[in-house]
Amino acid sequence: MKCAKCGAEITYDLGYCPYCGAEVRIVPDYNPLDDMLAEQVRDAIGGGETSENELERYRQAVQEKLRQQKQEEQQKREFVQRRSQIEAEEEARRKKRLARRREVRRKKRRLLIGMTAATVGLLTLLSAGIYRSSYSGKIKKGYALAKEQKYDQAIRTFEKAVEKKPARAEAYAGLAAVYNAQEDLDRAEMVFWDAIEANPTSVELYEEMIDFYIATDQETQIPLLLDECEDESVLTALKSYQVKVPKFSLDESKYDEVQELTLTSKAKEIYYTIDGSEPTTDSTKYEEPISIPEGTTTVKAIAVNKKGVPSLTEEKTYTVELPLEDAPVVTPTTGQYYEYTMIEIEVPEGYEAYYTFNGEVPEKDSEDSYKYTEPIEMPEGNTLFSAVLIDKKGRASAVTKRNYTLTYSYE
Does the pTM exceed 0.70? Predict the structure, then answer.
């Protein structure tokens, strides 16, 4: 016998292992499950002795139940892991979008920095002076100069107003309006971004920037703006501009049959794309479930509220890979025939059938293979007939083989 602790070979006459000193157990381990099973079987059959067969059947039933419970627990763990993975991927995409937008703004600033040098110098001089007019007076004067297309003077006037009250929004809106009139939307947008970064809790500035986006047909930028806002008081005040992304009825996954995707939202409308482009209000309007065909499909969707403000883009990718058909059904069966006989292959929709007469596995592009288009006349003599199904992706099913012997009687 072997030591249960170290595995060394020992004799029965020793009460301990001479190598590790562990006590030698001669009586086998007691398994209470056996007694429990025997008791359950005895109760089930009304008492009496339990046969080994009955005990074994009951033991197998219990073990099968335990196996099913373990399988269900494993499926639950996999579901939780998959959900955590999806949430992590969504968070990673959000952070990636945020980083990309910040990088775009940094590039815009570098492009504009040379153009703003003169403005900075002017503001420095103005800050040392004494303002003789009121803030509202400068705003009024700035718009009057812009109306006369005296854009440089209007810019200087609005910049004076900014210096006077840097937390107010009117002067920034005026500056943006001047740049917009000069068809410089990037510079107009940067006016607001700079103002908000300096005053991140100003609801007024956010409202002015939202109005700017609406006036310039850039509503898709509104959810990006609010997505970057970290101040809860601002988000609460601008709740009417926040639109939740549409809900997708299907999780990202692989499917073995064509699916139907349902999109839902409390917003007024939903728009989506399946070609990889970003959805806008010019994209396909969602009105009925979206068919997800065989292959890989990426669906991007936005929800749009009554004000015309969209949500962020929700995106999910689905893969549908239909299972292969089994080996084709070929008639007649293997056997010996004595009269004219036709061979037929059942071809399911979405498949083509190919066959050979020499026992070789049929292939789509092989010279020895033939495409099945109609019933085939069985050749005289001995034939090793093979048939296969091939789907649209070129995947081949299992092969069906038939051994035919056709002998005509010429009496």
Answer: no
